[in-house]
Design brief:
With 206 residues, the protein is an alpha+beta fold. 16% of the residues lie in helices and 42% in strands. The chain contains 2 helices and 13 strands, in the order ααβββββββββββββ. Strands 5, 6, 7, 10 and 11 form a 5-stranded antiparallel beta sheet that branches.
Length: 206
């Protein structure tokens, strides 16, 4: 005697097919190396593919619009990244910087917004110094570009000094930041480090 098979309801079949399709999609995503669920996870995977040493977080700065900008050190290499929308998930838009001996000055490719005394955002360009001298208690950046000459005191964030530079407003009170502010080849600088007694211990320029 044949046993009657219980037929699946139509809705159950639809749910089953959707689950199978989702499983197949994730298997394809994993096999083809598509973006990870977060930009930090995607950055980890990128660093492993480049066979870099285990990186250490140097700083994570919040740029305009609340977008995080991450700086990591892996041996003689600095890896910088910020999240960017990928095909399906967020990916890490990363850059690799070969570090020279001693302090290294980098520029964040995105503007940073800092609150003024009234809490209104002020747009700045942020420069980061990696590998400052261990004895440094202060750092001062003198910057020269097409906007003029600027002198800024560094803000210590862990093992990194950050400099927030803002152009002077024009006659209409507007601040204009050209692309040259973000290109190290388009500017000149002198960077001085001082110990806790105020004595100069190191200077680099570029």
């Amino acid at each position: 005697m044949r046993k009657n098979r219980m037929l699946w309801p139509r809705r159950a079949k639809i749910v089953r097919n959707l689950l199978l399709s989702a499983l197949l999609g994730f298997l394809m995503w994993d096999a083809w190396g598509w973006p990870a669920f977060s930009f930090r996870a995607d950055l980890r995977r990128t660093e492993r593919r480049m066979l870099l040493p285990e990186p250490e977080l140097a700083a994570e700065i919040e740029t305009a619009g609340g977008v995080p900008y991450r700086i990591e050190l892996a041996g003689d290499v600095a890896v910088t990244a910020y999240p960017s929308r990928g095909t399906f998930f967020t990916i890490a838009n990363h850059s690799v910087h070969r570090l020279e001996e001693g302090p290294n000055l980098l520029c964040l490719p995105r503007p940073v917004e800092l609150p003024d005394e009234e809490g209104q955002p002020l747009t700045c360009v942020c420069y980061a110094v990696l590998r400052p001298p261990k004895a440094a208690a202060r750092a001062v950046l003198a910057l020269h570009n097409d906007g003029g000459d600027f002198r800024e005191e560094g803000v210590r964030e862990g093992d990194v000094y950050l400099f927030y530079v803002r152009p002077e407003p024009d006659e209409n009170g507007r601040v204009r930041i050209s692309s040259s502010w973000f290109l190290m080849k388009e500017l000149n600088y002198e960077l001085d480090f001082f110990d806790k007694d105020g004595d100069s211990i190191c200077r680099i320029s570029g």
